[in-house]
Amino acid sequence: MSETAPEPPDVSAAPLGSLKPPASGVVLHFAELALKGGNRRRFERRLGDRLRQALESAVLPAKVVALGGRFLAVPRDPARAARALEVLTRVPGVAHAARARLVEAQMGALEAAAIEVLAEAPPGTFKIESRRADKSFPLDSIGI
């Protein structure tokens, strides 16, 4: 299936509807669906349904939202985010999944979440990558 990466500290809050920071969850990327042309929306909707069914079967109540090329699943109980990751990586169509933190779109909140994640991580090297889903954020990806 897919290997999981360390927990990234930020996910843009702009398209998330009723989800409000702070929240912990799982960000999911899919592969082949992006190549389906006119059927893309249908396949994305079906994958979203499968993700919801997998969480429901595992008795993990969660909100699953589409984020344009990926999904975010946020369990009602933040302590169950690791279990949600285990369940969701087994869903066919998921290419990559990782823990995620939903934080306010402010550098201070991003920095605090990154420090918290690193404090919980095993010792070693790490890498930070950023992509702005919300282009109205005042810094570009390099500035972050």
Structure overview:
The protein has 144 residues and is an alpha+beta fold. It has 3 helices and 4 strands. The chain has helices at 40-57, 81-88, 107-120, and strands at residues 23-30, 62-66, 70-75, 94-102. A 4-stranded antiparallel beta sheet has the order 2-3-1-4, covered by helices on one side. The N and C termini lie far apart (31 Å).
Structural key phrases:
globular, alpha+beta, 144 residues
Tally of separate helices: 3
**Distance from first to last alpha carbon:** 31 Å
* Percentage of residues in helical conformation: 25-40%
| C-alpha geometry | globular
Trace the largest sheet across and list its strands: 2-3-1-4
Low-pLDDT stretches: 1-14
Strand segment count: 4
| Average residue-wise pLDDT | 81
* Helix/strand order: EHEEHEH
Decide which structural class fits the backbone: alpha+beta
* Main sheet record: 4 strands, antiparallel
Name the beta content range: 15-25%
Give the radius of gyration: 15 Å
